[in-house]
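User: Is it possible to get a 3D structure for a protein together with its bound compound? The compound here is nicotinamide-adenine-dinucleotide. I've pasted both below.
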Amino acid sequence: MTGMLQGKTAVVTGAGTGIGRVIARRFVAEGARVLVSDFSGEQEDTAAELGEAAVAFQADVRHEAEIEEMFAQALEALGRLDISVHVAGNPGGRWGEEITEEEFDAFTQTHLKGMMFCCKHAARAMLPAGGGAIVNFSSTASLNYDPLISFGYSAAKAGINSLTKGFAGRYGKDGIRVNAIAPGFTLSEKNRNVPEQVMASLSARAMLGRAGTPEEQASVALFLASDLASFVTGLTIPVDGGWTARLA
Ligand SMILES: NC(=O)c1ccc[n+]([C@@H]2O[C@H](COP(=O)([O-])OP(=O)(O)OC[C@H]3O[C@@H](n4cnc5c(N)ncnc54)[C@H](O)[C@@H]3O)[C@@H](O)[C@H]2O)c1
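Assistant: Yes, that's possible. Here is the predicted structure of the complex:
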């Protein structure tokens, strides 16, 4: 590790498991102090693993009041906020018009509403530090149609790409950069157990012919959060092994 985030502070949502947990681990290895947040309780395990550099906070991103409290706690525990990575998300859902109202509400509340208010309060928390970097987790599903993926999930993720541009525009002159990562099929814990046929089919979508790893998502999050990306904002970057570059 090269100390890319030495002296920086960060919030990571969805850090109880999966990609969020790996990002928190990577940021700490690069020198950051991190508030790790989740609604599941597993943020405590992540913080225990990471030791003194991490603080746990339980927050459900469907509720603005909990998000506001999370960023207040980050400022209190870490002293300032330089980076906020919004990973919390709920996958799945029925395909096409078979989606239920309940599922649609669950997607939009977690992904779209959650991202709106995480960005709002992250930006406010960063202003006193004179700038910062926000990284939102979208999906390749936000960019193009795929028959295996729920319309409701894709639409909520597409809204994240729009919010990313909106916040980048609003806060650019304050030195706050806002970007999104659109992962392709990635082997977080839950995806290691999908049926073999689904695993083969989703892996084959990538030009590289395989699934991505949480570490590969974390590497791009690290770049976007770091000063190496100082002139990069408003973008949604596919990290998908070439999935979205294909015609079919
Ligand atoms: N893994 C993939 O293949 C893939 C592909 C495209 C996009 N993504 C996106 O990347 C992100 C991470 O994916 P993952 O595979 O690590 O998922 P995951 O399900 O393993 O982890 C998501 C985490 O978010 C937390 N979470 C869910 N709802 C929450 C809420 N309302 N408030 C707070 N925390 C909540 C969960 O407890 C969990 O710890 C998600 O936003 C997902 O949509 C993942």
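The radius of gyration is 17 Å. The helical segments are 18-29, 43-50, 64-78, 101-126, 151-171, 196-205, 214-225.
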